[in-house]
Amino acid sequence: MAARKDAPLRIATFNVNGIRSRLPHLLRWLEQERPDIACLQELKAVDEGFPIADIHEAGYGALWHGQRSWNGVAILARDSEPIESRRGLPGMKDDEQSRYLEAAAHGVIVGCLYLPNGNPRPGPKFDYKLRWFDQFLKHAQALFDSKHPVVLAGDYNVVPTDTLDIYDPKSWRKDALLQPESRERWEALLAQGWTDALRTIHPDEKIFTFWDYFRNHWPRNAGLRIDHLLLSSELAPRLKDAGVDTWVRDLQSASDHAPTWVEIGAKKKAAKKAARKKSSPPPRG
């Protein structure tokens, strides 16, 4: 059964860090949280290895763009099939890495991305990160200007600030995730008009989406916020809630990321119709 038209739409992003090894975690999360749309990153599997039978059994249709051992993105839609609109990032025809997938589902356009990490820097990996980010900025602007309801969801590999988005920046100063060039592009993205959903709902809270496997970071809540959901101007007024399903990170052999989500309220067509009716002249007798 499709989601009710008046029900909030829950859209999530989750870097699974290996869909085959962490399929039980993914299926448990889908069953418990029931997102309407889920964007996945780091599948680390070829297209033929994507567990579509298990995803279907969980009640989801899916599109995926895999790659052996690395990268890979997917879009899942509950009780429906997402309709693909783009595979790969415009302007990156020579890119052999599977990092971008775009589809229409449940009345919105969803861009699922896995932005390059960029380490070590300086070097070709950081140069690739910036080049990819620049092309993404161009495509994001076109999507924003389209006036369609759009969500750009994924692992951006950018920590926006030193104050609320990382436990302590001292040991990360040389990391590509905190570099001025990375943050400048993040700010340029927001300047287009996109709404950072998680920060909008939690403006003054230290909130994280990633805890690496070293130095006891998860038990100490020594995390980073690098998984983001950006809303277009068509969706931002309908933002109801946003959060992080941290319980998934606490599972045994978990991904180093936790699912991050937003809830979008239904479009208020009835109110607009009533307003038009009220402003119309009464019928002549």
Automatic annotation (TrEMBL):
SUPFAM superfamilies: DNase I-like (SSF56219). One of its GO terms (biological process) is DNA repair. Gene3D superfamilies: Endonuclease/exonuclease/phosphatase. The active site is at residues 114, 155, 257. Residues 12-257 form the Endonuclease/exonuclease/phosphatase domain. Its cofactor is Mg(2+); Mn(2+). Signal peptide: none annotated. The record marks 257 as: Interaction with DNA substrate. It comes from the Bacteria. Mg(2+) binds at residues 15, 42, 155, 157, 256-257. Pfam families: Exo_endo_phos. Probably binds two magnesium or manganese ions per subunit. The record marks 227 as: Important for catalytic activity. The record marks 157 as: Transition state stabilizer. The keyword NAD does not apply. Keywords: Hydrolase, Magnesium, Manganese, Metal-binding. GO terms for molecular function: DNA binding; double-stranded DNA 3'-5' DNA exonuclease activity; endonuclease activity; metal ion binding. The keyword Manganese applies. Belongs to the DNA repair enzymes AP/ExoA family. This is Exodeoxyribonuclease III. It comes from Lysobacter dokdonensis DS-58.
